[in-house]
Structures are given as C-alpha cells and as structure tokens.
Amino acid sequence: MRTLTKLTWVEIKLFIREPMVVVFTLALPIIFLFVMGGVFGNTPNPEVYRGVGAMNYYMPSYYGLVMMAIGTVALPLHLAGYRERGILRRLRASSFSIWTVLGSQLLVSAIIAILGSLLVTVLGLATYSPDLPENIPQLIGAFFLGVACFTSFGFFLGAVLPSTRAAQGIGLILFFVMMILGGAGPPPEVMSNVMGFIGDITPLRYVILTLQNAWLPGPDFDWYTSASLVTAGITVVSALLAARFFRWE
Fold first, then answer.
1. What is the pLDDT of residues 12-42, one digit of tens each?
2. What pLDDT is attached to residue 47?
3. To 10 degrees, the CA torsion angle through 239, 243, 244, 247?
4. Which of 102, 149, 158, 188 is the residue whose CA sits 20 to 30 A from 236?
5. Is the alpha carbon torsion for 185, 181, 122, 53 positive or negative?
6. In terms of DSSP H, where are the helices of 97-163?
7. Is 8 helix (H, G, I), strand (E, B) or coil?
8. How far is residue 84 from each of residues 8, 20, 78, 93, 243, measured CA to CA in Å?
9. Count of CB atoms situated within 10 Å of the CB of 9
C-alpha cells in the first residue's frame, strides 16, 4: 500500500506536467460546457435533450467527457510513452507488479475525474443554474462505474498501441468521434441513423446514460439496467484484454 501511495503521488505530479493531457481532461469539457450553454441555454425542449433543458442534459454528460479524455488520451499516451522510453522495463526490474503500476493509474484517473467533474459542476451551476441531481447516491455509483470503464479502456489502448504517436493519433480520433456521436455533442434525436448507430457502439453513450439517469427527474430516467450492464461489461472486457496484451517493453 505504501508503494502504491508513493507511485500514485509521483504519477499525479507527472500528469500536471503534461499540457495536452491537462487541456483535454480539464479545459475542454469546460469550454464545451460554455459553448453549448451559450448556444442552447437551459430552456426545456420536449423534442430533444430528453425533454429537459440543455444544461440539465449536458452537466452529467460532461462528467463522462472528462472520463473519456482520461481513457482515450491521457492513459494510452502515458503508458505508451512509458514503454517507449523504457520506464515500464525499469519499473519491472524494480519489482513493481503490474497491479501496482495499473493501480496507481486507476487512482490518478479517479482523482482527475473528480477534479474535472467538480470544475464542471461549480462553473455550470454558477453560470446556468441547472437542476440539482435527483439521486445523488445513484450518481456517485454511476460516476465511479464510468471511471472504472474508461480507465480499463485506457489500459487496453495503452497495452496494444505500439508508440506515443499511435496513441496520440488514435486517441484523438476516438475522443472526437465519441464526443460528437456518443452523447456529449448533438443530442441523439437529431442524428441520422448511421450517426446514431455509431454513437450506440461507443462506451461514452452508456456511461452518459447511467449518469443522466441519476441526474434527471421523472420515471423515464430511472436507473437503466441495460446501460449500467453494458458499461460494466465494457469495463470487464477492457480489463481482461489489457491484462492479456500488456507488455513491459
């Protein structure tokens, strides 16, 4: 536990030194929050945004955006860079287990996700006055399920992508495709069938659903067993694949 704590603290300091990672995990969700809020406001619309105001819809969605940035940009780039520079090999030679290395990354991901989501919450509430979450315990459960999902997904990408250039390129493509089609951009109601299908196969869609179902009011927004099960399934499959293909060098 002491080793895990020390390694986690080191990883947090290294995270802060990566400008690109900081921008995607902390700055971009806030930028998108203000852009969407400035365009659509928070007036309820029965035809889109599941019948609620745009900011009520997007507040939990941007929690998912923070998590997705961690899973598609931060973790793959970090792990691929460690492997490319021989850091993973040196960690292994120092008797660090794979679980200590990945456990520290999981803790850092959770801390950054909490920090990014708090920034979205404080700025969103201060600027647009959206409704508060309907079910806070359920929201907390959905939040940590989403963190686990995208952390596992990031471990998988970091395990299979061969270099930092590959991690950066593929990670950015996945980030923007998921952001636009997975529920953090245009609402699914205005998308074409093809766009909707692509959105439905992204992890972000189901993470956002679990978060929205805890935040938004009404019987239609109860905890969706299917969305939470899909999110949990993605978490387990990604973790198993990451463990299977993880390479120290």
1. 887 877 888 888 888 888 988 888 888 887 7
2. 67
3. 130
4. 188
5. positive
6. 98-128, 136-160
7. helix
8. 20, 18, 10, 16, 18
9. 13
Residue 238 near residue 75 (C-beta atoms within 8 A) = no
Q: What is the residue type of 217?
A: P
What pLDDT digit, counting tens, does each position of 199-220 carry?
Answer: 889 999 999 999 988 888 765 5
Residues 149 and 207: beta-carbon distance below 8 Å: yes
- Asked if 101 and 180 count as a contact pair (C-beta separation under 8 A), the reply is no
Query: pLDDT grade, residue 114 (50/70/90)?
Result: very high
Residue type, position 230, single letter: V
Whole-angstrom CA distances from 108 to 15, 97, 172, 238, 239 are 8, 17, 20, 18, 17
Instruction: For residues 144 and 51, give the distance between their C-alpha atoms in angstroms, rounded to a whole number.
Output: 26
Beta carbons within 10 angstroms of residue 66's beta carbon = 28
Choose among 49, 234, 64, 48: nearest CA to 153.
Answer: 234
What are the tokens at 90?
């040196």
Which amino acid would we find at residue 202?
A: T
Long-range contact set of residues 29-34: C-beta below 8 Å, sequence gap at least 24: 29/62, 29/65, 29/66, 29/69, 29/116, 29/119, 29/120, 30/119, 30/120, 30/123, 32/58, 32/62, 32/65, 32/179, 32/184, 33/58, 33/59, 33/62, 33/120, 33/123, 33/124, 34/123, 34/127
Rounded distance between C-alpha atoms, residue 64 and residue 168, angstroms: 20
In sign, the C-alpha dihedral spanning 221, 225, 228, 231 is negative
